[in-house]
Specification:
The protein is of the alpha/beta class. It has two domains: 11-200, TIM Barrel, CATH 3.20.20.70; 294-306 and 321-575, Alpha-Beta Barrel (TIM Barrel), CATH 3.20.20. It has helices at 24-36, 55-67, 99-109, 126-133, 150-155, 176-179, 184-200, 214-220, 256-259, 294-298, 335-348, 360-363, 366-369, 383-390, 394-408, 419-428, 443-451, 465-476, 502-509, 525-532, 559-575, and strands at residues 11-17, 41-44, 71-73, 141-144, 162-168, 182-183, 222-226, 241-245, 309-310, 314-315, 322-328, 352-357, 411-416, 433-435, 456-459, 482-487, 514-519, 537-541. The strands form four sheets. It has an eight-stranded parallel sheet with strand order 13-12-11-18-17-16-15-14. Helix 5 links the parallel strand 4 (141-144) and strand 5. Helix 1 packs parallel to helix 2 (55-67) and helix 11 (335-348) packs parallel to helix 15.
């Protein structure tokens, strides 16, 4: 089997070690199961000259692997390669060699029956031969020696192209090798998660919205609307306009500073959207907001290892990742359920719980609220009734904050969905304000939040990279006490659209702020991989039950999954020396 690894899956090696116990039947079963679990290469630790296995046994082992699309060998092509720990030392150099050539060598020469004239069977180290010819590959192989599978699942995100793990049929059997081996079920899950992470890496570019984001964009896109009845010929002032979710989409909130001072060419009623055609010669907002070379102009404030952000605890590049448990509206409008989720989030190891605060009439136009909402996730006949059912009062928010901070001992904050909600959260003295993806193009809200001089965490779903530049500029004009979270606004997000390489892009574009990840995918391996790519703030929804009514539950983590996420993040932070 020849494997071309140009942007293709990682080469997975199952090391049977001595777990076969010299038994032909056990060895055959292990080889077949390892193949079915996704292994590309089956390696057996033994000396062929002293082995109890016969030459015909080895030929049979080779055939089992070959019939299942894999390769068998008793010679390790990772054995003499130095271990890559800490992984942060991993570097990929370009010597112009072809990855496919390496795998041609591995698959054609890794094993020959005794008596073969091929030099590899006469003791020449295949690894040394390959390293001699392809020196860059000595740091692309990793021999993994532990049972915890989260590291192999995520190191593919930083470029590891071949991983070797010990494999057993029963990790409860006595013996050191069994103890340090991965059983068939966990091995299969590990390989599946590695493929998920590989699919999620993406291009690191975002010139347009992801396909899966369009439903959310159509539902939550905010338009500039009239704050009151406006006459034709009005020279617009800030107080004449609001940015709301409207039943009819019009101009993005990014137009807000552009239309101030311009003459309105038509009459617009209160709460009605304002269109580009209502102005003379208005161009796309990006034409008015230049951000070329903005990074080099603004880095002077702080950059690199000197960046700090206080989100309730001090965050810098050496501190542990800050983990936010997004309760959102997974409380079903029940304050007791909300309190239970707060307590569970603390138990899971989260740093902070986050809710969503909305003043319904400030976020939505009347027409948007009156729209029928027919859905399995609806809590009301209209969208307004649905939203109102899930909204806590100001007094309930105060009660929840007191419960979280005083009784449970966890940071408490919320997304500000509109100007009135921002004012309330500022009065509540939360450690930071979250600006959700739906508000990240709301210049009016961004500017007011930035002027309040409170730390901000801003998601970037439904935004192109150009839009993110503008969001950054709006806030950075006042301070750099904020973070941008890569996000895809799809519930759930398909792995192939997660595009977590955007984290590296954002880190490069905005070196004077922290970059994080707000995930909506099913499972946690993509989120964990984002930490390996440099995410310092993680946000995931938490729920009591992923099958509950509500659009966010399906892409949330239940308490056991959230605990695993936190545990895995802390484990990789230690082992990747992040």
């Amino acid at each position: 089997m020849v494997k071309n690894i140009h942007n293709n899956p990682t080469y997975v090696i199952a090391n049977l070690s001595t777990n076969h116990e010299g038994n032909v039947e056990i060895a055959c079963e292990m080889i077949e199961k390892a193949c079915k679990c996704g292994a590309d290469f089956i390696y057996m630790e033994l000396d062929e000259s002293t082995s109890t296995f016969s030459n015909s046994d080895f030929i049979h082992f080779h055939k089992i692997a070959q019939d299942n699309g894999a390769t068998f060998s008793t010679k390790s092509f990772v054995g003499s390669i130095r271990h890559i720990l800490p992984i942060k030392r991993f570097k990929k150099t370009d010597d112009g060699s072809d990855d496919n050539d390496v795998y041609q060598e591995i698959t054609e020469n890794c094993w020959k029956p005794r008596g073969s004239t091929n030099k590899n069977s006469d003791g020449i180290d295949l690894v040394e031969k390959i390293q001699e010819k392809y020196p860059k590959h000595q740091l692309q192989f990793w021999d993994f020696q532990e049972k915890i599978t989260c590291l192999p699942e995520i190191v593919v995100a930083i470029g590891i192209k071949a991983i070797s793990c010990k494999f057993t049929l029963d990790d409860k059997q006595s013996g050191f090798d069994h103890l340090m081996s991965i059983n068939a079920r966990d091995f299969k899950t590990m390989v599946a998660n590695m493929k998920t992470v590989e699919a999620a890496l993406g291009t690191g570019k975002k010139d347009s919205l992801s396909t899966s984001e369009w439903p959310c964009f159509k539902k939550l896109f905010k338009s500039i609307v009239a704050a009151h009845d406006l006459e034709r010929g009005t020279i617009l002032k800030a107080e004449d306009l609001k940015i709301k979710v409207s039943a009819t989409q019009s101009m993005s909130g990014f137009y807000f500073p552009i239309v101030i001072g311009r003459e309105l060419l038509s009459e617009v009623d209160e709460d009605d959207p304002i269109f580009v055609s209502d102005f003379d010669g208005l161009k796309h907002y990006s034409q008015y907001m230049s951000f070329s070379n903005y990074a080099t102009k603004n880095i002077a404030i702080q950059s690199g290892d000197n960046i700090e952000l206080n989100l309730g605890r001090r965050l810098d590049f050496k501190s542990p990742c800050y983990i936010i448990a997004e309760i959102g509206q997974n409380h079903q409008g029940d304050i007791m359920m909300a309190k239970k989720l707060i307590k569970l989030a603390k138990k899971c190891g989260a740093d902070c719980v986050k809710f969503q605060k909305t003043c319904i009439n400030e976020k939505f136009t009347a027409l948007a609220l009156y729209q029928p909402y027919v859905s399995k996730n609806s809590f009301g006949a209209t969208y307004g009734e649905h939203k109102q059912f899930l909204e806590f009062s100001d007094e309930q928010f105060r009660e929840l904050k007191k419960y979280a901070v005083k009784k449970v001992g966890i940071h408490f904050t919320s997304s500000a969905m509109d100007l009135a909600s921002l004012d309330f959260l500022l009065s509540l003295k939360v450690p930071f304000i979250k600006i959700g993806s739906g508000e990240s193009g709301n210049v009016q809200l961004l500017e007011k939040a930035a002027k309040a001089n409170i730390p901000l965490v801003i998601s970037t779903g439904m935004q192109t990279l150009d839009d993110i530049h503008i969001t950054y500029q709006v806030v950075n004009r006042y301070h750099n006490k904020f973070a941008l979270l890569h996000c895809v606004s799809a519930y759930p997000t398909p792995p192939e659209e997660a595009n977590i390489n955007m984290i590296k892009t954002l880190r490069k574009c905005f070196p004077n702020i922290f970059i994080g990840y707000s995930g909506h995918e099913i499972g946690s391996c993509i989120t964990t991989a984002s930490v390996a790519l440099g995410a310092k703030i993680i946000e995931r929804h938490i729920t009591l039950d992923r099958n509950m009514k509500g659009s966010d539950h399906i892409c949330s983590l239940d308490p056991s999954q959230f605990s695993k996420l936190v545990r895995d993040i802390r484990y990789i932070e230690e082992n990747l020396d992040l």
